[in-house]
Automatic annotation (TrEMBL):
Record-linked PROSITE patterns: DAP_EPIMERASE (PS01326)
Site (described: Could be important to modulate the pK values of the two catalytic cysteine residues): 203, 261
Major localisation: cytoplasm
Name of the protein described by the UniProt record: Diaminopimelate epimerase
Region of interest: Disordered: 1-20
Chain sites annotated for binding substrate: 36, 100, 110-111, 201, 234, 261-262, 271-272
EC number: 5.1.1.7
Stored PANTHER family: DIAMINOPIMELATE EPIMERASE (PTHR31689:SF0), DIAMINOPIMELATE EPIMERASE, CHLOROPLASTIC (PTHR31689)
Alphabetized Gene3D superfamilies for the sequence: Diaminopimelate Epimerase, Chain A, domain 1
Compartments where found: Cytoplasm
SUBUNIT field: Homodimer.
InterPro entries reported in the protein's UniProt record: DAP_epimerase_AS, DAP_epimerase_DapF
Length: 335
């Protein structure tokens, strides 16, 4: 699996104003998964010209609605990337078109998939009672189902997502060494060894010894990764917290994580990042490490499970908090 740059050519840029061709307003919904927040757009027929500028304007926390990303629901058959997905899974009729807050296109968003599923339920396009949802992403098909909220977690609804096959791009040598990169983080005195993990998009994970170091890291500046990842990377800082037993009797690992997301900056959660963090700590721990991990992020807790078939599952909440009408003339005024 590679994290090739996602194509941008499907998104036409209107000129001169960045206004969708279908009108002067846009119906959107605001949602989040463990406070990784998104502006959601129902564009089933692919009528909206979702330019990078429009994404930045919607995601702007002062002049727009605000979000770490923008998610568009579009019929898979309307996008070239969707055709690839439909060839793999004809049931994946809806495509998650994911954009980072800076307007860049990303292959995948783990928290976004759950929020996308909640949004499809809201739109009447999926009923969890009917069984699993297959959806398209630029990283391939993802499968979602509703699952019980674990004991002790104050969320109303959880979804579990099969996030597909994960890999260590550096191969056996990186697994053996436990690292294939160095990362300099502002606020921390020395560069740290880190491990690259691909979960459909690129991640670089470094372990810190304690929570004081985690708190000291300054993620207002992007960490510097060496060698420079060809398509950029998301950087996760993790503190392993050991193992515990759930009320159901399962032994799980636990980690605390902060993240600097490619195309965004520090966010309060990253689902693919949580998968990468748990998988890196599990790799470092070696044989006998748990398959199930709880990942505590500033915005809540998600669960990551390494599956026997080489896939990884991510479970966590999804919340829709508002429906809004965006005045596109006002949104773009003065820019
Ligand atoms: N927050 C997302 C990841 C979004 C994409 C990422 N910033 C990238 O560019 O790869 C998640 O929950 O996984």
């Amino acid at each position: 699996m590679t994290s090739a740059p996602a194509p941008t050519s499907t998104v036409a840029t209107p000129a001169p104003a960045e206004v969708p061709s279908h009108g002067a307003t846009l119906q959107v919904t605001k949602g989040h998964g463990t406070q990784n927040d998104f502006v959601l757009l129902d564009d089933r027929t692919g009528a909206v010209e979702l330019s990078a500028a429009l994404v930045r304007e919607l995601a702007d926390r002062r002049a727009g609605l605000g979000g770490d990303g923008v998610i568009r629901v579009v019929a898979s058959e309307r996008l070239p990337e969707g055709a690839v997905v439909l060839a793999e899974e004809p049931a994946a009729t809806w495509f998650m078109d994911y954009r980072n807050a800076d307007g860049s296109v990303a292959e995948m968003c783990g928290n976004g998939v759950r929020v996308f599923a909640a949004y499809l339920e809201r739109l009447g396009l999926w009923d969890a009672a009917d069984g699993e949802l297959a959806l398209g992403t630029r990283a391939g098909v993802r499968r979602v189902r509703r699952v019980p909220v674990p004991a002790g977690i104050p969320d109303d609804v959880w979804y579990a997502v099969d996030m597909g096959r994960w890999s260590v791009p550096g191969g056996a040598a990186a697994v053996e060494a436990g690292a294939d990169a160095d990362v300099e983080v502002a606020g921390l005195p020395v560069a740290r060894a880190a491990l690259s993990i691909d979960v459909g998009n690129p991640h670089t994970v470094l372990a810190l010894p304690d929570e004081a170091e985690l708190a000291a890291a300054d993620l207002t500046r992007a960490p510097v990764v060496t060698p420079v990842p060809p398509y950029g990377t998301n950087v996760e800082l993790v503190v392993p917290l050991g193992e515990e037993r759930t009320p159901e009797g399962t032994v799980v690992g636990r980690v605390r994580m902060r993240v600097h997301e490619r195309g965004v900056g520090e966010t309060r959660s990253c689902g693919t990042g949580a998968c990468a963090a748990a998988l890196a700590v599990r790799t470092w721990a070696g044989a006998g490490a748990p398959d199930e991990w709880l990942v505590d992020v500033p915005g809540g807790t998600v669960r990551v499970t390494a599956l026997p078939d080489g896939h990884v599952e991510l479970a966590g909440p999804a919340v829709l908090v508002a429906d809004a009408t965006v005045d596109l003339t006002a949104l773009t005024a003065g820019r």
